[in-house]
Amino acid sequence: xSFFRPVLNASxxxxxxxxxxxxxxxxxxINAYFIFLVFxxxxxxxxxxxxxxxxxxxxxxxxxxxxxxxxxxxxxxILNTCTIPSMxxxxxxxxxxxxxxxxxxxxxxxxxFGTLESYAxxxxxxxxxxxxxxPLRHNSINTLRSMSCIVGLTWSFAVGIIAxxxxxxxxxxxxxxxxxxxxxxxxxPVFRLACNDYTMQWSMASFxxxxxxxxxFIFILLSYGSILVTVFRMKSLDSRxxxxxxxxxxxxxxxxxxxxxxxxxxxxxxxxxxxxxxxVLSLSLASCLPPCINPIVYSLKTxxxxxxxxxxxxxxxxxx
Length: 320
Known about the structure:
About 75% of the residues lie in helices and about 5% in strands. The protein contains twelve helices and three strands. It has a three-stranded mixed sheet. Helix 2 (about 30-55) packs antiparallel against helix 3 (about 65-95), helix 4 (about 100-135) runs parallel beside helix 8 and helix 10 runs antiparallel to helix 11 (about 275-295).
């Protein structure tokens, strides 16, 4: 009997045809917000594609730092492509139904690339750590090969663990409501609709929040702690200023990505002090804005990329 029990239990699992995403149904000024999202998406795709093009077709920029920048730009494009077009489709077509398998796929892509975004910022912090704390050994430690391995490992890890987390969602049975109160097929709002036990999914969500969000953030804080110690040991004030100046753009990206998410999760989910509508709006902004801001604040502010970008614009003007 024990051999047939899992089969019997599996046969009782009910998967609905799909889910209805209803996060913005009661949101005022929805027209203006979706126009804003279209603008954010166009900026995201254009500037990140520009960064990828400049670095890919300029061999002088084939360095570890710029591999990390291309990695971030690619992640930014895919992350916003995962959510913004589907939100705009709901607004234009008035169809908020998402088929079951497509819902799981969107869930996988969003969390895989949200994780990679977090790790990409940690990789950039690692690049600054090696450059400032080990300047004489920088070229031997942070090679193109080692950076490629680090990027490859983060992709393999993120895709693998999120694939597992998404896969266990198929063990849930949905026999009542299929209305997901979020702006996409979000992990927690979906598993809370299940009519069987979702302890495993809840535990996985809590574990992954720490491992994939808090973990890289702690690494970034420790990296900048080491950088500050090294900088204050420098005898020249000019050297201190130059070293810290190379970190400003990255610190802005870290603040833009982590502070809203940590605030929303702490105040909204654990303390319950944010209204549900405000939480959905805040989360959508917190996930959509960083990929739009990253290339403008960081990549295009980098001296080498800025020079190549201006040269490209000048060439387009002279040879239309």
